[in-house]
Amino acid sequence: MFNQRDPTSALIRDLQAVVGKSYVVHAPEDLLVYEYDCSIDREHPSIVVLPGNSEEVAAVLKLAARAGMPVTPRGAGTGISGGAIPVGRGMVVALTRMTRILDLDPVNRIAVVEPGVINLDVTKAAAQHGLFYAPDPSSQKACCIGGNIAENSGGAHCLAYGLTTNHVLAIEVALPDGDVVWLGDPTGLEPGYDLRGVFIGSEGTLGIVTKAVLRLLPAPETVTTLLAVFDQTDYASAAVSAVIAAGIVPAAVEMMDRLAIQAVEASLHAGYPKDAAAVLLIELEGLRETVAEQAQAVAAICEVQNARAVEVAQSAEQRERLWAGRKGVAGAFGSIAPNYYILDGVAPRTKLPEVLRRVEEIAARYEFPVANVLHAGDGNLHPCILFDDRVPGADRRVLEAGMEIMRVCIDAGGALTGEHGVGIEKQDCMAWVFSEDDLAAMAKLRPAFGADAKFNPGKVFPGARGEWEGSTGARRIMERALAAGAYI
Amino acid sequence: MGLGHPPDRPFKVMDTRALNRVLEYSAEDMTATVEAGVTLAEFQHMVAAHGQQVGLESPFPHRATIGGILSTAVAGPHRGALGLPRDQVIGIRVAHPDGLLTKAGGRVVKNVTGYDMAKLYVGSLGTLAVIVEATFKLTPLPPTARTLFIGCGSMDEGLALTQRITEARLQVAACELLDAVTQARIPGADASVQRRWLLALEFWGNAAAVARQCGEVASMVREQSAVMAEATGPGGQAFWDAVRDKGRVFGEPALIVRAQTLPTATRKMATELQRISNEIRLQPATSLRPLNGTVYAHWTPTGIRQAEPAEWAALVARLRDAARSEGGSLVVEDAPWALGGVVDVWGPPPPSFSVMQRMKQQFDPERLLNPGRFVGRL
After folding, report:
1. Taking 50 as the threshold, does the pLDDT of residue A480 lie above it?
2. Is there a domain that residue A302 lies in?
3. ipTM summary value
């Protein structure tokens, strides 16, 4: 279906003329690092191009289109659903050279950045003005803004602040045909269709972000972090619902179960009690009177909901240690199991106790240990199935168990993915949620943006297996462990 | 039928008001699914009983339907506290011109399953599909809400105070600066603080935090020798309702234009508005949202008859140029029939217009839905 999967020497020469010789990667050994992200599948690209600015992105896309070569955009490669895997081989356009913060306007509270800027670097740059960039995926030290926009990334604090889409005012994108256009304007209210809004979260299937205007928020006056310890996971889930029912929306409500706690304490020593069935990490931000009142109320609610102990972080160091445990939990699984598969599902908050019980049943039936890490405040759960892929057939059974768990989330009225994206991982589950008509309406966006079948092929929509044909290094099903240090 | 150009071909009006059912409301999950014909007032009333609100604002909330509000997606004075209409929707169902119904999103607050189609339909003025139901995330109602009225001798005095409030990082839920003509139409402010300009501020939240912030404003006001009063009883609510109505009289459209720029350009835009209006001796009622970069101008139907339609079209064009030179835009939110088709409602289409045209072609190839009414006469 593709005219060209491997570059001709003429194409390589043309690409080198655009981006410079050292930014066109085509030696097989150099391509290896671009064949995977933090997901379960992998594929060798035929060529990787690293443009340095919008104009170069545009020129590269024009050359790829002329050659009829598939194109897959790539950011930091921290995605967990396979969005950056070059299904059908062809060209990977990596944005990691485009790391400039072009403007930071503290009065209007906006930043203009290139797509390769690391998420945390935006907040670091804004901090001198007392501002911050709200979306904080666990990978925020490594992931980049372009990838965040593609996936509409969330993070622990999106309970109060919302997802990436709520914090991106405008984007400059290179369309698949190489035209560069702005979608939206810095006021956030450009007349016309909200193309910005549909592009965000389109998983790199509609074009490549080349610049973004981000909304910055004033850093909160006060931050208080509480650790609530429970002897049953049900108690912890009930406490989450009770806090929200009291009209309190914390900045973050994170939950970890026994196995997750044990993994963290084995390697990171965050200070969670090792014998607890579950802990909640609750962060309150805002004006000092509000935070003080809410902290008291949250502690009281947790106690009523059978918390064994409620501890308030007494210093910034203690708070950071508590968070380091949470943000490093996925890496910590490496210390207790050879392999793990991280799921991303959503259930209505009130259904969490029931869903977690079903997760446990499924894992027990498949005889896998499962550790649960949740952005509990918004019902986003990340069960992590621990396994050993040297055991024959374990990979396939892990995937099956994972799909059963996703089914439970859907049946509870939830969603297939809260923040990791559909990508390759869940494209075949889309039919559980959406009818053919629903999917056909979504598919209309592709031609509207000028994306044909060669632009980031084989993603999001079901039935994309054909795109893998002709692959040489394809691993369509889980055959390897997740990369160590994946983030959830 | 307020916003947008007149349709460019014979049309029928489809009334969605019979789609007035609440399909699901889960107070514990803070989500609700309603049909498009439910009015905003009905919706807010239902969730307020559980201490919650939906982050939408509209003129005439007793008439305005959820479908209409989402299709126009105009922000209200509480944008800073609530976000934009598009930020509130977590799921949507639409009817396409061929009669198919499709959905996107879901009923949970965090969801990236599939393309975020709700963003496409919200703010598309019904030109792609007809919104038939939507699911919203809700937020708790603030335990305390207080509105302060500050009389200012000039626009600059009001803007200077606003800047100090921003620098002091106060959490302002709404901030509106109104000229004398607007004040005369919008009841609520105490007569003792009526000056040439009125700065109205609302604070939401915990009582002690709100009290501290009101105290900080009071000391700033004293330092600037301005005067301040506070809304009492339901006065604050009534005032903000009137601000949203912008002095509109139902069934008698005025000319209302909204210039949207970055916050730092608010003063320049408002000054240009005064200068350009002076030249044709037709001063509008003016109100500013300095924290959002919004400037509203409002001419009554009586005022409009004092000039020819072509003069109004030229005025709107000049104001738009001023907004665009600041990187912003200008939209005619409402216009009398006499100016329909004469003034340019949206201005030149944005740089991505070719994508918008292809989008229209994909979703409504026969141009059956609101033909010619939206940006670039889509």
Report:
1. no
2. yes
3. 0.96
